[in-house]
TrEMBL record:
SUPFAM superfamilies: RmlC-like cupins. It comes from the Bacteria. Residues 122-167 form the Cupin type-2 domain. The lineage of its organism: Bacteria, Pseudomonadati, Pseudomonadota, Betaproteobacteria, Burkholderiales. This is Cupin domain-containing protein. InterPro entries: Cupin_2, OryJ/VirC-like, RmlC-like_jellyroll, RmlC_Cupin_sf. It comes from Polynucleobacter kasalickyi.
């Protein structure tokens, strides 16, 4: 489980932790055992409006941020060998539907079954493990501590290692 601390100022302009909790109900993908995505925070505008916690938790699962906003997730990608043999187009489409992003799914799956394209600027940090960033013209192997600035390009994440990889991704609406 992912721990989330949310800070705010009180009426006397003194900061405090409004919430300190372990988030529940991560998004799972039945087609990829071991995969999870946990929503940490999102905004619906820039500059961001400071919403209460209930608003954040009531927003449905999204791959992309709300128009003009941002969204921050922690992802865990299991090793490809755990799920790749059992994947099919129906299972992939089901995942993209569950995150309201059927349009992001790329049907040219010879590069990777979960190839996608979103109109977002994604700021990514590899927190744990190793993963390959699959692009149209190349594959980049990433290790713990590496960062990626993904600018609305077709891409997929492929874990060729034997252990899960954890990535923090902050996605922002892009033009």
């Amino acid at each position: 489980m992912v721990r989330r601390i949310v800070t705010i100022d009180n009426d006397q302009d003194r900061s405090f932790a409004l919430a300190d909790d372990h988030l529940q109900n991560p998004l799972l993908d039945p087609a990829r055992p071991g995969f999870f995505r946990q929503k940490i925070w999102l905004t619906d505008s820039s500059p961001a409006v400071i919403h209460d916690l209930a608003w954040i938790d009531d927003v449905p699962e999204l791959l992309e941020p709300l128009a003009g906003g941002s969204i921050f997730h922690i992802y865990q990608f299991p090793p490809d060998r755990v799920w790749l043999e059992n994947i099919d187009a129906k299972k992939i489409a089901s995942f993209y539907k569950s995150v309201n992003a059927e349009h992001a799914m790329q049907t040219e799956q010879n590069l990777h079954p979960y190839l996608q394209k979103t109109q977002t600027l994604d700021l990514c940090v590899i927190l744990k493990g190793e993963i390959s960033l699959i692009l149209d013209k190349e594959t980049v192997v990433l290790h713990e501590g590496d960062t990626v600035v993904q600018r609305a390009t077709r891409h997929a994440w492929s874990n060729h290692s034997s252990t899960p990889c954890v990535i923090a991704i902050s996605s922002h609406c892009a033009k």
